[in-house]
Amino acid sequence: MKRPIVVSGIRPTGYLHLGNYFGAVRSFVKMQESYNCYFFIADLHSLTTHPTPDNLQAGVKQVLSEYLACGIDPEKATIFIQSDVPEVTELYTFLNMNAYLGELERTTSFKEKARQNPENVNAGLLTYPVLMAADIIIHKAQFVPVGKDQEQNLEMARKFAGRFNRMYNCELFPLPQPFTFDGGDMIKVPGLDGSGKMGKSEGNGIFLYEDPKEIRKKVMRAVTDAGPTIMNSPKPEPIENLFTLMKIVSDPDIVQKFDEAYARCEIRYGDMKKQLAEDIVNFTAPIRERILDILKDEEYMARVAKTGAEKARESAQATLKEVKQLIGVKRLF
Ligand code: TYM
Known about the structure:
Elements: E1 5-10, H1 18-31, E2 36-41, H2 53-70, E3 78-81, H3 87-96, H4 101-105, H5 108-116, H6 123-126, H7 128-137, E4 143-145, H8 151-167, E5 177-179, H9 212-220, H10 237-249, H11 252-263, H12 269-296, H13 298-327
Parallel strand pairs: 1-2, 2-3, 4-5
Bound molecules: ligand 1.
């Protein structure tokens, strides 16, 4: 039986953090066993914020090493760099003709980014979801493992895929569905600064590559409060976030222990943070070691990227050929 197709990518804008790992990468590692997976580094998407060439190069290398260090296996999954597959940008051009200004302007992440950086509201930012749709549908993906923050972008990908099918009276593109690690809701890994999600641009990331000492410092600095004074009271957001992170990295009985202590108003946040820091370090330290090793082997990384690009291009070219035929941009003379 043919394996269902999976596509996902990460922008090379910094070290991978726990949000990237638990929102996306751990699903990649799981899915490669039984799906036909395409995992890439979204270097074109990262151009919206104008990195220097050196930063861009370093970022691509870093994420590639991190993919491999996390256990994505080039023998099982196709690992590639987005800009090595120019067919994607060709499909992006076609999709742009049927993507409307109003719907692009209404996208939450566009509005947010435009508000944060009013001096850099470029067309690439506006059409970001179109490029993302092209990434996904060029391989006819059925599943896309991503975190909650990508939900709307994925919805747009379904919209553009469906619109193309209707417009050209075909069923070329499956409508890509989100995939979550445990089959539950899409997740948002929180930061430890009181509210919101962990993010590269939020400045609250705990990185896989990070030195254990630094991780301990960051966790010990996490925002807490004076502690509950009424038994079984609900947790305010900063405390809930601490528990959410603990549920992700620690054993369930440890979480339960602190949960019960909280309910009895006996919680000691210092102890909880120490435990959380150790559990994070236990998880990240072996990955960090592997990243350091892989970064030394540029030849290996180049080989992985080259083989991945060839496989991804083969799949992309096949789809693009069909697209061109349907649209009519195929020479008949
Ligand atoms: P990016 O680079 O911002 O994030 C990469 C992945 O990490 C997930 N993620 C999180 N998940 C849970 N909690 C968090 N705090 C958290 N922070 C980040 C993201 O949901 C994502 O899965 N637009 C994409 C890149 C992209 C893409 C694609 C993804 C380009 N084309 C095609 C899938 C398919 C992005 O900026 O991800």
